[in-house]
Model the fold of this input.
Amino acid sequence: NAGVTQTPKFRILKIGQSMTLQCAQDMNHNYMYWYRQDPGMGLKLIYYSVGAGITDKGEVPNGYNVSRSTTEDFPLRLELAAPSQTSVYFCASSPRTSGGEETQYFGPGTRLLVL
Amino acid sequence: AQKVTQAQTEISVVEKEDVTLDCVYETRDTTYYLFWYKQPPSGELVFLIRRNSFDEQNEISGRYSWNFQKSTSSFNFTITASQVVDSAVYFCALIFLNSNSGYALNFGKGTSLLVTP
Done:
């Protein structure tokens, strides 16, 4: 199993550009998450999905969109990049959970710089 | 409110010293789950341990041990005989309910541990 994979590893965007961060998992996990990590801080939840076709906002969703057409993929879309979106983005997945006990496994991260 | 506090921003120790990383949490839930993750300089997040609120037994895994005390809402992490490879940022996290059916991790700000030879 490759686990959780993310592409690209690093990207520089100009203000106003758009891009999609890709995330895929091959563990057949129902739950998937996008977090961002700003320098010196913990991770904050952007969006999550409990299964194909179902997504919901997290703590910091503004400026982002997601879709979940398959169990495996959970792309994160930035429509109009802003310097405030400079961050490291982590995708994570976990099995179906009835009470939140399942461990989340993280991808390697995508480092995004908006200039 | 759900909150995780890691008061120690940075810790520096010499190799072979023992070090304890503190984690204090707040939650209204009676059932919850706590986690520790390690983020080495390479940047990935490595799962270390999960603990549920009903199990206050301490856990030991090699040089790592965890002390969970509900009475003080703490879930501290101790590394015994630290090694240079232990240098990393360590995050404590709490599962919280984000909506009717979703669970996400609420992270502390992390403690940066530097182990020098």
